[in-house]
Write a structure and sequence with these properties.
The chain is α/β, with parallel strands linked by helices. It has 9 helices and 10 strands. The structure holds adenosine-5'-triphosphate (ATP). Adenosine-5'-triphosphate (ATP) binds next to helix 1.
């Protein structure tokens, strides 16, 4: 069943030329879809539309069969309960003056989700491989990779239907990145994810489907295995050629 459907979407920022043109793809429930493309290809803009931060001027986005009504505050309230995001920078996205417990339970309060928030936070922090006593500590007491784990715990604590990840491992060093990719792989088995990255290697490792963007258009889309085996578009071929080889044993 389709959870997210992007239909002929076009978008331009106020003054400029189109940044996205005729974008169509679907995200089946339970799938991991990677949006990949070089800097400036329109990935972040597309993610903004998926988050409801902007609305497309052309086409439409359907979530669970109904149009995403970015301008309706009532709709967005319920949409935010079902969709969470993880961003690139684990340093700026965590408030340094708050304990991890407060950071992770923030979506539960914002969304007025009832229940034992501490227990839910304990479950989420354990799911990302950190000890429950981490909840009593502050962001500066953790490494970059651990902070990104905390950001992931915050994204999954409200059990969203969809997680949108924007360059969520790009800022991490190689070995930390591999561990966080492994973590995403584990948690993504239980949910639907759209994973935005310029790094084809990361997307190939995590996603069962790939959508390749170039200058605001989809140049190739399909199952990861098919694209890896026989990339059709020269742009995809060059992205694949740019995957760095992982050092042995890392
Ligand atoms: N707020 C904005 N106003 C005007 N133009 C913008 C704005 N944000 C992005 N753009 C332009 O839209 C195009 C797509 O940018 P976008 O950030 O979506 O690409 P991207 O693939 O996510 O790149 P990166 O990986 O560098 O973030 C670029 O040409 C960019 O200059």
């Amino acid at each position: 069943m389709t959870l997210l459907s992007v239909e002929n979407v076009g978008f331009s920022y106020r003054s400029g030329k189109p940044v996205l043109e005729d974008i169509s793809f679907t995200v089946p429930r339970g799938a991991n879809v990677g949006l990949v493309g070089e800097s400036g290809s329109g990935k972040s803009t597309l993610l903004r539309l998926l988050l409801g931060l902007d609305s497309p001027q052309k086409g439409r986005i359907l979530f669970d069969g109904a149009p995403l009504e970015a301008r309706s505050s009532g709709y967005m309230r319920s949409y935010r309960k079902r969709v969470q995001a993880v961003f690139q920078d684990p340093y700026s996205s965590l408030d340094p003056s708050h304990r991890i417990l407060r950071i992770i339970t923030e979506p539960l309060r914002a969304l007025k989700i009832p229940g034992d928030h501490r227990q839910m936070a304990t479950k989420a922090i354990t799911a990302v491989g950190l000890a429950p006593d981490s909840l009593e500590r502050y962001p500066h007491q953790f490494s970059g990779g651990q902070r990104q784990r905390i950001a992931i715990a915050r994204a999954i604590v409200a059990r969203p239907d969809l997680v949108l990840a924007d360059e969520a491992v790009s800022a991490l060093d190689l070995s930390t990145r591999i561990r966080v990719v492994d973590l995403f792989e584990e948690i993504s088995e239980a949910m639907t994810m759209v994973f935005v990255s310029h790094d084809m290697g990361v997307v190939a490792a995590l996603c069962d489907q790939i959508v390749v963007l170039d200058k605001g258009r989809i140049v190739e889309a399909g199952l990861t295995n098919d694209i890896l085996r026989a990339p059709k578009h020269p742009y995809t071929q060059s992205l694949l050629a740019s995957i760095p080889r992982m050092p042995a044993g890392s």
